[in-house]
Fold:
Amino acid sequence: MKILLIEDDVYMAQLYINVLKLEKLGVEQALDGVQGLAKLRSESTPPDLILLDIMMPNMDGFRFMEEFKKEEAFNKIPVVVLTNLYDPAAREKMKALGATDFFIKSEQDPQELAKSIKRILKV
Amino acid sequence: VNLTLGLLYFFILLFVVELIFNRIQKKKLQLLTQTAAELVELKHQLKGYEGKDKIEIENSIESLNFCFVILDHQKNILIANTAAKKLFGDQNFAHIVEFFGTYYDLATAYTTTLLEKTPALAENVNANGKFYKLSLFPVISGENVSGAVLIVEDVTDSVLLERNKEEFFAVASHELRTPLAAIRGNMSIIKDYHKDKVAPEVLELITQSYNSCIGLIKIVNNFLDSAKFESGAAIGTLEPVDAHKLVEEVVENLTALAQEKKLELLYRSKSTLPPVLANVERLRQVVYNLVGNAINYTQAGRVEIMVSQEGQMLKFVVRDSGIGISPQNQKLLFKKFQQAGKTVLSREGNVGTGMGLYVSKLLVQAMHGQIGLIESSSQGSSFYFTIPITNR
Structure:
């Protein structure tokens, strides 16, 4: 199982990489939406799931989702949104853009994120 | 002789009569002149007043720091103050219409105002790099509308201030929560995955730090929420919410916390409740806060939640078997920083700024409900809040 983590914060990214490795899940990182899209377009085997931050430089999570949905080759990959925006409107917007799940970084432990990933991937 | 005497008498009489008549006339004339003079004086005085008022009104209009324009019914400008001349330059209505261009259709607004005799108001009209507040009032004289008064205020500063505030909250909440999330997450990983590698006393320190971090996250959330909602920010969409389901979810999530303290957590209600009109996230936050408080402040016994219909509202009651709140501290509930100052130990010396209740009050009020303390004694405390029912 391979997961693409799109997150610009070094410490948060390391935290998620750590917990995913502990849960025996493979992970690759992109630093923003632009890098994430480039990785998805260039790789022969697409990831099984995408973890997506919202507030990022260059291309934020919302714009990434808009671009991602246009790509027939990989737009069916489930996306779990990671954010610190405790804002119901942001959640609604992401749901409308096709996000599978929503994880609030400061409100949940990373193990809960691992659980939700495993539930989606049925592993 | 008789004739002469008769004539003399006649002339004397005539003279006397004329004399009297003249005097009367003179007096009359005098009086008339006096009255006329008085009238002229009065008129002068009145005229003076009229002029003074007019000058004062004109000066006042000139001194206004917003644009003031009086238009007649044919769109001719009758009066335009300095501020208006400065902003619009040229003295005709078409020029002012052009100034707002596509941002605001002033020509149509003018026609509607005169036709319907109602004011036209527009907030935050963006034109030429600034924001304006426009008000157009019909000038009504009797049955007719003789024209309109246009008032244009530059509200750029306040609009930008409001935007800065919103931006500040978005950035502050993100920037403050991110490092806290990293601290919480890493300690949580140590507690769960590496507990065998660390000494029990170190693990205990980690657990305490983890709990403090969660406490700090709650404080940050409450601070940001209260600042946000105090400034009048919207709480989000209000929609029909199944209160029964929502309370059951909260109870399920807080059962572990209650069990840790060996407390009974009970939920009672009719099996069917009408939906309430609320923001589901914010309603959940309020229920969490009241039930969480009740668990935190109760050392033994139970916490009960009851939901029932009362008229057009659903009433949520949370009752605990804690030691109660002193009458002095009851006055501080629902206020900002209730536990600050000398009353830090208001409820069993527990942690917290007490801002949770304050935020809950802001949220309940924004959802058109009420919140309060029903009673508190040594047997326990009962809090309630109400949310309107919806038929949708």
Observations:
- Chain B touches chain A at residues 170, 173-174, 177-182, 184-186, 188-189, 192-193, 217, 221, 236-237, 279-282 (CB under 8 Å).
